[in-house]
Every structure is written in C-alpha cells, then in structure tokens.
Amino acid sequence: xxxxxxxxxxxxxxxxxxxxxxxxxSDLENARTALLNSIxxxxxxxxxxxxxxxxxxxxxxxxxxxxxxxxDQSKKMLDIQQQRLSNHPLRGNVTWRHQDxxxxxxxxxxxxxxxxxxxxxxxxxxxxxxHLPRWLNSLRPxxxxxxxxxxxxxxxxxxxxxxxxxxxxxxxxxxxxDLPNRTLVNMNAALDQCALEMLASQNMSHDLICTRLYRxxxxxxxxxxxxxxxxxxxxxxxxxx
Length: 241
Ligand SMILES: C[S@@+](CC[C@H](N)C(=O)[O-])C[C@H]1O[C@@H](n2cnc3c(N)ncnc32)[C@H](O)[C@@H]1O
Fold this sequence. Notes:
Blueprint: H1 4-12, H2 16-24, H3 27-33, E1 44-48, H4 54-62, E2 67-72, H5 75-84, E3 94-98, E4 111-117, H6 125-136, E5 139-150, H7 156-177, H8 187-192, E6 196-204, E7 209-216, H9 219-240
Parallel strand pairs: 1-2, 1-4, 2-3, 4-5
Antiparallel strand pairs: 5-7, 6-7
C-alpha cells in the first residue's frame, strides 16, 4: 500500500528547495551549517532524513575522513542526494539506505556522530519518545548529536511570529506529506529525557530555529548528573519549607 508520507516527500523532492526559500529565505540553509565547524574530527556518522542532501554535502566536505551513512525513506530524495554528490571527491565515503528510520536496527554503538536537521519535527511526541533514544543509541559512548530544528520562542513578538510561520509550515506539510502534527512537537521534552550534554548552541531567525551540538553522556556521567539533580531538588524543597 502507498505510504502518503513517503509519496509526499517523493513528490516534493524536486521543488523542496524552492518552497524552503519562499517560506524561510536562507535561514534554514544557514542554520544547517551554523555549528559544523564545532564538530571535532569524526570517523563515522549517521545522517537521518537529509532530504535533498545539502547538509550531507557540507558534512562530507568538513569531515573528509568520515564514513557517512545517510538514511531517508524517500527514494526521490536519496536520488537527489546521490546526484548532488556525483562529482564530490569523497562520494565513496557515503552509504545510502532507503528505509524508514523508525525501523532502523542493529547499529548500537556504531557511530561517532548522529545528524538530524528538520527531521525530528516530522514525528509525534510518542514516536520521539520511542525512537529518539534508539537513534541516539547508535552512537558510541561520548558520541555527538548535531541537531537542527524549529523551536518556539517563550514570549513576545518572536513567539507570535514563530506561531505564524509554524502554522503555515504545518499546513503545508500536512497537505503535502500527511504530517500528523498540527503544532510543533515538543522536541525539548524528548531531548531532556535523553542522557545528553549540550556543548554548543545557536539560535537563528529570531529564535525560530536552533542548531545544537550535544554529547551523549556515559553511563557513569549520567548517574552522576541524575544524582546531582536529585540533590538539587531536595535542597530546593527544603529551602521552600
Ligand atoms: C522536512 S524534510 C527535511 C530535509 C532536510 N533534512 C532538510 O534539512 O531540509 C524531512 C526529511 O526526512 C525524511 N523522513 C521523514 N520521515 C522519515 C522516516 N520515518 N524515515 C526516514 N526518513 C524520513 C523525508 O523523506 C525528508 O527527506
């Protein structure tokens, strides 16, 4: 049976860049690469849902010794990624996998770097709760997560502006790709559940977009950080009493 989401992205693939430019100018383009130079040398990377492959292209050039696996469920998007890199001298460093990232298995502790740009917002909160930890699990202990996506500023005119932009975007993707979300999924809630330390962060487009570099905590570091948080909570409670 035809999957309407996959079919939608296949249909959109050729015009994706045009619509992006129309809606956001060069903001998404700038956000994708904002912190690429902050990523230390990596030997392996997994990039999820990179669409027409602009971040993949930039990553390949900035990490010449890195073997990259690129997964996308849209065959058409993967074709465009391959065309884009057809003359890239490091093209041989990329492996393409055409599949639903939710069915991604057997890659525990494999990669130094996980990359997702405007990908996590394609999922529901429930999907993220299930799959984000699994995707992060593909990283070696201490591995890095390069994350680029939309966010909602807390208050003021920036929040109003973001609501307008995000509503237009959700309508568009709902129409084109059957996106289940009507509003921006709370990605921070999902990220906060994971054992991550933020190393660098940059907001763009009046805080509508964020680019972040995280490091996955080791089990020991995570235990220590949780113990610290519990102690802080207790101290806070006793100071309130
Ligand atoms: C909104 S586009 C973002 C594309 C690109 N990362 C960018 O920065 O513009 C989402 C991409 O993720 C892919 N995608 C969405 N859901 C997916 C899934 N479950 N598994 C694999 N790829 C998926 C789509 O085919 C599309 O290429």
